[in-house]
Amino acid sequence: MPELGKYAFAVLSSYGVTIVLLSVIVLASVRRARKVRAALDEIESRRGS
Amino acid sequence: MSLWEYANPVKFIRTTDKVLPWVWALTGICLLTGLVWGFFFTPDDFRQGSTVKIIYIHVPSALMAINAWLMMLVASLIWIVRRHHVSALAARAAAPVGAVMTMIALATGAFWGQPMWGTWWAWDPRLTSFLILFLFYLGYMALWEAIENDDTAADLTSILCLVGSVFAVLSRYAVNFWNQGLHQGATLSLDKEENISDVFWLPLLVCIAGFVLLFIALVFLRTQTEIRARRTRALLAREGQA
User: What was the ipTM of the complex prediction?
Assistant: First the structure.
């Protein structure tokens, strides 16, 4: 861990907020992609059968 | 081969399906390398101390906040002129990613500003135009959600995107227009004298590449989702009519 001195709060908070926000948008996008894909597959297979 | 071929939803999904794993892999490599390099292996700045490490997330996110809106502008113009659904859906897909980038830029700017400027926030031209840009992102997403008809929503959000572009450009050039703001000038410059030192610049470039790739990966994935969601709505509507 690098020595951040008196600015540790500012630096670590910045990285923390960034990691959280990026994780949220990536996970939400992947989750919705799976959900929508499954819903479409279900409708298409229903129409196909 | 024409670029307009990718306006075909099936072709778009097929092509992006092939490209996406590579883009995700490159995103991971660039982000991990850039952030680890910047955080652990760069020196403190003689004036800013360790807060200089915030540059590796603040600058790329601010850059993407503006460029995401410009990408939405191009996609909206394509929709208005050529009526390709994929372009309207790509603009819709990019908005939440751009909003998150703007939020990161605002938050990291505040964390940096508190110890350096002595304040979390100032009504400085660049900060204010970024806040307005963020509000435009929220308004753009809300407008998409508020209108049921996809084509009408695409039309109205495209107009909103054109108006918001003024603030996207202003966010970039505000520091040049008004000199009285707190925010410093461009971090990256082609002028060797003005540009930051290589020890900071090189990891920053890797981080910027990582953020650009992350944006591309997310927009591809989210556009695929929007295309599928639109098809689902169309099929359900047809079933309802039958």
Answer: 0.94
What string of pLDDT tens digits covers the 242 residues of chain B? 677 777 899 999 999 999 999 999 999 999 999 999 999 999 988 888 999 999 999 999 999 999 999 999 999 999 999 999 999 999 999 999 999 999 999 999 999 999 999 999 998 888 888 999 999 999 999 999 999 999 999 999 999 999 999 878 877 776 666 666 667 766 666 566 666 788 889 999 999 999 999 999 999 999 999 999 999 999 998 887 76
Domain boundaries along the sequence of chain B:
18-42+52-241
Q: Which helix (H) or strand (E) holds B109?
A: helix B85-117
DSSP tag of A3: -
Maximum C-alpha span of chain A: 66
Give the whole-angstrom CA distance, residue B46 versus residue B37. 19
Which residue among B58, B104, B229 places its CB closest to the CB of A21?
Answer: B104
Pairs of residues, one from chain A and one from chain B, whose beta carbons lie less than 8 Å apart: 95
> Shortest CA distance to B48 belongs to which of B200, B203, B220?
B200
B49 CB neighbours in chain A (<8 A) are 5-7
- Contact flag A25-B112 (C-beta cutoff 8 Å): no
- Signed CA dihedral, B46, B50, B51, B54: sign only: positive
Count up the domains in chain A and report the number: 1
**Residue A14's domain spans which residues?**
10-48
SS3 B45: strand
CB B57 within 8 A of CB B207: yes
Structure tokens at B225: 């989702």
Residue written as token pair 């008196």: A6
Of A3, A6, A36, nearest to B228 by CB-CB distance is: A36
